[in-house]
Amino acid sequence: MKTEEKFIKYEKLLKQWSEKMNLVAPSTLSDIQSRHIRDSAQLAKYLPKDVNIIDLGSGAGFPGVVLAIMGWNVTCTESIGKKARFLSALKEELDLPNLTIINDRIENFLSKTPVNTGDFVFTARAFAPLIKILDYTHKTKCRLFLLKGREIESEIQTAKTKYKFDYKLYNSETGDGFIINVFNIK
Length: 186
Prior knowledge:
Blueprint: H1 3-18, H2 32-41, E1 52-55, H3 64-69, E2 73-77, H4 81-93, E3 99-102, H5 106-112, E4 120-125, H6 130-137, E5 143-148, H7 152-159, E6 166-171, E7 178-183
Parallel strand pairs: 1-2, 1-4, 2-3, 4-5
Antiparallel strand pairs: 5-7, 6-7
Helix pairs in contact: 6-7
């Protein structure tokens, strides 16, 4: 199945499963391609090609599944069982051997899994405030590539009360949010 076909099937599966559970806001189901898929895919412009991605709180698979379809090795972490089952169904239906689904809380997963700084990056979309993401990931010293909303400057200031880090901020291509790349975390 070609990449475009996988995205079309992804959209269809998302709509089907959303009839049974809340995966994304119902108001966004009419524009999945732009609102969710293209929004997630814009991370590809900033991600190194040779890294493994750990997607935090993957939910409906954004951005993790999108990046797996685009060729990255992705581990989606999702603590809610029914959402993890949806992600597992996507893995099977879209034939994504480069996608791993972990049904566990991120802090539990990271306590059991060695994460090498140079080999991994973290992604997230609509997961948690920046300070909370840093609470989970700071010990790994891995880079973060996060899709964030308009309040990112406030999140950065709050996170800087507890952590030192460098960052690059990019305007979203699909809305009024941002992409933040966080690195050198201490």
